[in-house]
Amino acid sequence: MPEESGRLDELNQAGRRLSTATILFHQAVADRLGLHPTDHKCIDLLASAGATTAGELAEATGLTTGAITGVIDRLEAAGFVRREDDPKDRRRVILRLVAKRYRDIARLFEPFGAAFAELGARYSERELATIVDFMTRSGLVLREATRGLREQATATARAKPRARRPRRRAGDGGG
Questions:
Q1: Domains and CATH numbers, the chain
Q2: CA-CA-CA-CA torsion for 46, 49, 52, 54, nearest 10 degrees?
Q3: End-to-end CA distance of the chain
Q4: What percent of the chain has pLDDT over 90?
């Protein structure tokens, strides 16, 4: 078992290094695009999901509707998304990626994509299937952990007693 424990420790450390490298890469991409990393990843979510409402994007990210409105405003101002009226519900707006701007992002990923394909070519189909399985399951674990953290933050915010402002008395200079 000690060897297995050592390998799991290696996996944990490799995962941490990969996570850091991934975040720093996406920060660099966002910087090149003049965006915040959250905005950049919202584009990725829109690319995967297709036409989406603001509420659906808020739910996918865990951001509040107010925060997602700010993201959408920035993405629209930068020309990455456009708002369209929902033909089925006039109260809702559909978000769509602007194809030309999305191609601008894709160009930034071309060198990485080529290097990633070269790396993947080193593995057999069976090994790749194992890697894909691990990455897919890791994503599920991360999404669940993210959901848990957000739920804890919400519960903590609700449980905090609100600060009471002192009452002003006549003649205390308060007005």
A1: 2-122 (1.10.10.10)
A2: -60
A3: 73
A4: 73
